Amino acid sequence: MIFVSVETNFILEMAFSQEQVDSCESILSLCESGKAKLIIPSFSIGECFEALVRKAKTRKELASKISQELRQISRSGSYREEVTASQGITALLVRSSEEDESRLDSALRRILSVAEIIQLDASVIAAAESSRRTYRLGYQDSVVYASVVAHLRSYHSENSCFLNRNSRDFDDPDIEAMLNASNCKMLFRFDSGLEYISNLTNQ
Hints:
By secondary structure, the chain is α/β, with parallel strands linked by helices. The chain has two domains: 2-50 and 109-201, 5'-nuclease (Rossmann fold); 57-100. Helix content is 68%, strand content 11%. It is built from ten helices and five strands, in the order E-H-H-E-H-H-H-E-H-H-E-H-H-E-H. The protein has helices at residues 8-15, 21-32, 42-74, 80-86, 88-112, 122-135, 139-154, 167-170, 173-180, 190-201; strands at 2-6, 36-41, 116-118, 160-163, 184-187. Strands 3-2-1-4-5 form a five-stranded parallel sheet. 31% of the residues are buried.
């Protein structure tokens, strides 16, 4: 069985229909067909909700500011017609947040129906603390990394991969060597991950 470890960005890529959503959909389909096993740290699920709340708050604040400015501009009769036409922007910002919430719920239902969740326990937290010091990872990245490593050590597989979009922090030769020692290939694009998994499942 091929273990496919992913983190927050995989879920968000699907929920918000971002650049590599098609590759994520295909990876999930392979997992749904039983050709691979999706692995997700429980911490990453919480991060998704945090990202959703943060994005909704930003849009709400922006919509409020735009509404205030439009009210000011509308006091000038020469702009009144244009202001009326522009009011749809604030409605769009509010509606987009509601639709993001719905899409995230839908993506999570599908993902969690096939994924194995790595629990956040005391041993993972302790390992994350060590990773922060050793690899200079941030708090969130260290928890994700420690979760993935804990799973790899508990379930030995001849083929596995860790897919994430955070090359800025994870692209470290020592981290890569540690993962390679557990037969885990790290890839920073979901389309590269799809190609890697597809090659293994077609062998």
